[in-house]
């Protein structure tokens, strides 16, 4: 028997495949195309305290092996989500993760307070979105800035597990991650999109009104995988040093990170997901692949299960190369 279930920050998922924020709506949009109930979890679109219309101009631009987007966190606001979308999401079956975004600490904190009083299973704190002019990614580039958001949100959402979504654009990703953990993060998801740009050669101008946009898709997968591998090691080393200091001696052997990692970035096939799980991720998120192939996540779940059966692996945790 194969057991696909995983536990992330105390929340049990029936399998490790989660729909990434901004790529799956609120789940019901795909209800007539795939069996949404088979997914492990669903991250909502990025939610802000107040409604946002999103960015103007062109929002999507296809690249070789990837997709650039500049959506700008278009969403109805947290109150509307709680009233209209959350009841429908709860009926779908998968774990419900609310992706919380904002422009300032007060907005993040008030949004977290409102979500804390709902039936969502987890909050994913987005401090890494490259497509908004205020807040967003700026908080996730620096350890001190990241902690300044995570700490207040942790207090405001005391009843919910808190997963922080990290930016690959941070100069020192490990330092940001450690700051988030120390400030109260229960899990980390990585990576968000890479900051990129495109130029309309015909009209001789940038494609996007904001000039830069977020790059996702298969092109970023090797980079994202490397970051998951390295962050697992960095967090494990920090945990080992902490344990050694507590014992008054150097810790023996590598340690596991204090918090689980959820890997994402260009995952489109079961083999891609297996790479992230082997690199140390406890679960994975699938994003832009769903646009090209709506059944991608279902096939990934089936592919993981098939691989485990062939290899005689009983539990997802046994896939990790990290011990």
Would you kindly provide a brief summary of this structure?
The protein has helices at 78-90, 105-116, 143-156, 173-182, 221-247, 270-278, 289-292, 296-311; strands at 6-8, 11-13, 17-19, 41-43, 60-63, 66-69, 95-100, 122-126, 162-165, 187-190, 194-197, 199-200, 205-206, 212-216, 261-264, 283-286. With 323 residues, the chain is of the alpha/beta class. The strands form four sheets. It has an eight-stranded parallel β-barrel with strand order 3-4-7-8-9-10-15-16, surrounded by seven helices.
Overview of the structural elements:
The protein is α/β, with parallel strands linked by helices and about 325 residues long. The protein has a single domain (about 5-320), classed as Aldolase class I (TIM Barrel, Alpha-Beta Barrel), CATH 3.20.20.70. Helix content is about 35%, strand content about 20%. The strands form 4 sheets. It has an 8-stranded parallel barrel, surrounded by 7 helices. It has a 4-stranded antiparallel beta sheet with strand order 5-6-14-11, with no helix packed on it. A two-stranded antiparallel ribbon has the order 1-2. Helix 2 packs parallel to helix 3 and helix 3 runs parallel beside helix 4 (about 175-180). The radius of gyration is 19 Å and the shape is globular. The two termini are about 20 Å apart. The mean pLDDT is about 95.
């Amino acid at each position: 028997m194969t057991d696909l279930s995983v536990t992330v920050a105390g929340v049990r998922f029936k399998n490790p495949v989660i729909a990434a924020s901004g790529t799956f709506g609120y789940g019901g949009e795909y209800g007539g195309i795939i069996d949404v109930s088979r997914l492990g979890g669903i991250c909502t679109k990025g939610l802000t305290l107040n409604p946002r219309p999103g960015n103007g101009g062109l929002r999507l631009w296809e690249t070789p092996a990837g997709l650039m987007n500049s959506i700008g966190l278009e969403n109805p606001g947290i109150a509307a989500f709680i009233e209209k979308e959350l009841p429908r999401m709860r009926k779908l079956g998968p774990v419900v993760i609310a992706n919380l975004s904002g422009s300032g600490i007060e907005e993040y904190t008030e949004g977290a307070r409102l979500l804390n009083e709902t039936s969502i299973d987890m909050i994913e704190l987005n401090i890494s979105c490259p497509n908004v002019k205020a807040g967003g990614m700026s908080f996730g580039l620096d350890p001190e800035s990241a902690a300044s958001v995570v700490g207040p949100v942790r207090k405001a959402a005391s009843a919910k597990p808190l997963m922080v979504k990290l930016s690959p654009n941070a100069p020192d990703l490990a330092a940001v991650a450690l700051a988030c953990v120390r400030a109260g993060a229960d899990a980390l998801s990585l990576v968000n999109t890479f900051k990129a740009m495109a130029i309309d050669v015909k009209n001789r101008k940038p494609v996007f009104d904001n000039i830069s946009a977020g790059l996702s898709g298969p092109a970023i997968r090797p980079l994202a995988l490397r970051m998951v591998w390295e962050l697992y090691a960095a967090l494990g080393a920090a945990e080992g040093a902490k344990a050694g200091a507590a014992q008054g001696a150097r810790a023996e052997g590598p340690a596991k990170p204090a918090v689980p990692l959820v890997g994402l970035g260009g995952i489109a096939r079961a083999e891609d997901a297996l790479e992230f799980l082997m690199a140390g991720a406890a679960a994975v998120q699938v994003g832009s692949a769903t646009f090209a192939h709506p059944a991608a996540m279902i096939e990934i779940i089936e592919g993981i299960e098939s691989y485990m059966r062939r290899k005689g692996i009983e539990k997802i945790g046994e896939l990790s190369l990290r011990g």
